[in-house]
Amino acid sequence: MDDLDTQNIELQLLLQAIHLKYGYDFKNYAKASILLQAIHLKYGYDFKNYAKASIKRRVLQRLERDNFKNISEMQHRILYDTDFFENLLLELSLNVAEMFRDPQIYLRLRHKIIPELKKFAHLKIWHVGCSTGEEVYSMAILLKEEGLYERSQIYATDMNKQLLKQAKDGIYNIKKLRHQKAGGLESFSDYYSAHYNHVVMNKSLKEHILFSDHNLATDGVFGEMNLIMARNVLIYFNRELQNRALGLFSDSLSPGGFLCLGLKESIVFADCAKHFEEIHKDEKIYRKS
Ligand SMILES: C[S@@+](CC[C@H](N)C(=O)[O-])C[C@H]1O[C@@H](n2cnc3c(N)ncnc32)[C@H](O)[C@@H]1O
Fold first, then answer.
1. Which residues contact 101 (CB under 8 A, 6 or more apart)?
2. Using one digit for the tens of pLDDT, what is the confidence trace for 36-67?
3. Which atom of ligand 1 is nearest to 98's Cα?
4. 3 alpha carbon to ligand 1 midpoint, in Å?
5. 187 C-alpha vs ligand 1 centroid, how far in Å?
6. In the chain, pLDDT over 90 holds for what percent of residues?
7. What φ, ψ does residue 33 adopt, rounded to 5°?
């Protein structure tokens, strides 16, 4: 028996003892870790450095919802039924997105950051964790209205290919529009064609957007960006993965480039923080020196 086996047995005994004494049953939590390792080996998605409690909660919710007897039964299904896995991946990757989410960000971009970006002949913008694309189209509209779209190239990435497909299609059921609150100049309806119960974003907004898959846990840098929008992605990572991702953003930005994080995210603890100046505290906008 090697050290790892001994440690596993000790861990199992400890978990049993906690269960008996305090009634908390962590058995499935421990097994959920093994399941995440299996997903990494088979599909290449590495959830090791995600905030553990939330990811395991989702796995266990799915276990209950689909009436699996235990994690091993669910693991078998995940590893041998790709459709089932893809569906679970959508839940694990927490993909909530909205047009002009946090309108004050777009106001700040419009009035403070765009004037700086206008000084460049060409612009490269990276939307990290773009999900179903709402944020990317919001940016495309902003750039159009500010006369910058034609000289911009937007890279929109996400680790989840299903979400990227939806982003490319640009078909939405728009309930909450925040275009005007975000300082929108034209009527929002100029940017889509309306159908019975959905809208399709105009082709002209897609011309300068390149969608591709990129995983912040395993992939490398994107060169010479002037602006990186990385909103509401880091929040799901532990410190180690946040640090990796922020390092990638730092290495991908040109000097003077901007980084915009989600309202609950920050760069202060990261190794690369010394390369950045915080320029809009509330909106979490930083500039690389
Ligand atoms: C909550 S959404 C954010 C969408 C958009 N940025 C916004 O703020 O509205 C988080 C996105 O991050 C993506 N994501 C999660 N982990 C990732 C990783 N390791 N690499 C790239 N994208 C990831 C998810 O697939 C999901 O689409």
1. 134, 135, 138, 178, 231, 232
2. 888 999 999 988 888 877 787 888 888 889 99
3. 9
4. 37
5. 28
6. 60
7. -65, -40
Tell me the best of 106, 159, 248 to mutate to test the pocket of ligand 1, counting ligand atoms within 8 Å of each CB and taking the most: 159
Whose Cα sits closest to atom 3 in ligand 1? Answer: 232
Question: Strand 171-172 to strand 192-194: parallel, antiparallel, or no bridges (unpaired)?
Answer: unpaired
Residue nearest to atom 2 of ligand 1 (CA): 95
The CA angle 273-278-281, to the nearest 5 degrees, is 125
| Helices vs. strands in the chain: H and E counts, helices first | 11, 10
Distance 156 CA to ligand 1 centre (A): 11
Domains of the chain: 3-93 (no CATH), 103-288 (3.40.50.150)
Ligand 1: residues with CB < 6 A are: 93-97, 101, 129-131, 135, 158-160, 163, 215-217, 231-233, 236
Contact 87, 163 (CB under 8 A): no
- The SS3 call for residue 167 is helix
Report the nearest-CA residue for atom 12 of ligand 1.
Answer: 129
Cα three-residue angle 117-258-236, rounded to 5 degrees: 140
pLDDT digit string (tens) for 174-229?
665 566 666 777 777 888 888 877 889 999 999 999 999 999 999 999 889 999 99
